[in-house]
Amino acid sequence: MLDYARYCGEIVEQTELLVDSLAGQDMTTPVPSCPGWNLGQLARHIGYGHRWASEAVRGEGAMPRTDRAMRELADYVDEDPDALIPWLREGAREFGAALREVGPNMRVWTPIPGGKKTPEFFARRFAHETVVHRADAALALGADFEPAHDLAVDCVDEWLDLAVVTWPRLDVERHRALHGPARTLHFHATDTSAEWVVDLTGEDFAWRHAHEKCAVAVRGPLTELLLVLYRRRAVEAADVEVFGDTGFLASWLDVSPFG
Q1: Distance (Å, whole) CA 50 – CA 124
Q2: Reading across the β-sheet that carries 241-244, which strands appear in turn?
Q3: Fewest 10 Å CB contacts: which of 19, 32, 50, 218?
Q4: Mind listing the GO molecular function terms for this protein (predicted)?
């Protein structure tokens, strides 16, 4: 994990980078990695997410109001960037300020069973949420996307941490069908020292940082692995090499969507 102050700062910084990429763009541009959304709807989703999370961290343990606003986006198909961009920036800054104000240790409501019930959950989750949605915008616009390596590694770590919790609760039959002897996946970043092994040989979803022989291995630059794991880029379109059981990899990714 990164430290709490870094997460608070990244929420604002990643939003600023997103805002820079949106300046002068057509908000009706489709976002292929978020089917059914355009750039304006993506920005609304992010901005309403920041506001919803701000309410959660200021709620002293109370559940925030519905998150419907960040999910029901049909009313935002033709956004005015002159109004949208300042609104998006304001939400990120207010959220960052709320996180700093309450600090990392207050008990709050979170949507995930188990784990820390503190603002640190929201700081980490929405730092990564904003990073990945910045990738969505970059992919839609054909722009560069290259997050800092330590941030990208933590994005993958958190994705796998959340999978540990959600795997036994969602789509249980399809998940269970992937478990068995030698059911392991290895993801190896070629431009940094990060490696991950996903282990489905036991009863539970498990992962670890390791270099091991697995049923399937995926090697490539860290950003490419991040995009593949978050289902933002298809394996076939990514700058990665795959060795071993490609069918198992495809099946695992098919039941492992996130965000």
Answers
A1: 12
A2: 206-208, 195-199, 184-189, 216-220, 241-244
A3: 32
A4: metal ion binding
* Residue 50 and residue 107 in one domain: yes
- The percentage of residues in the chain with a pLDDT greater than 70, rounded to a whole number, is 99
Helix (DSSP H) and strand (DSSP E) numbers for the chain: 8, 5
Return the structure tokens found at 80. Answer: 């005015």
CA separation for the pair 99, 87 (Å, rounded): 19
Q: How many structural domains is the chain composed of?
A: 2
* Residue 47 maps to a domain: yes
Predicted model pTM:
0.94
Contact 125, 175 (CB under 8 A): no
Q: With 70 as the cut, is the pLDDT of residue 259 above it?
A: no
Does residue 117 share a domain with residue 38? yes
Residue 258, pLDDT above cutoff 70? no
Note whether residue 151 is domain-resident: no
Out of 94, 111, 145, pick the residue that ends a domain: 145
Residue 72 lies in a domain: yes
H or E segment to which residue 196 belongs = strand 195-199
Boundaries of domain holding 188: 169-254
Over the stretch 205-220, which tens digit does the pLDDT of each residue have?
999 999 999 999 999 9
- 102, 53: one domain: yes
Mean pLDDT of the chain: 95
- Burial degree of 3 (CB within 10 A; 0-12, 13-18, 19+): exposed
pLDDT at 256: 85
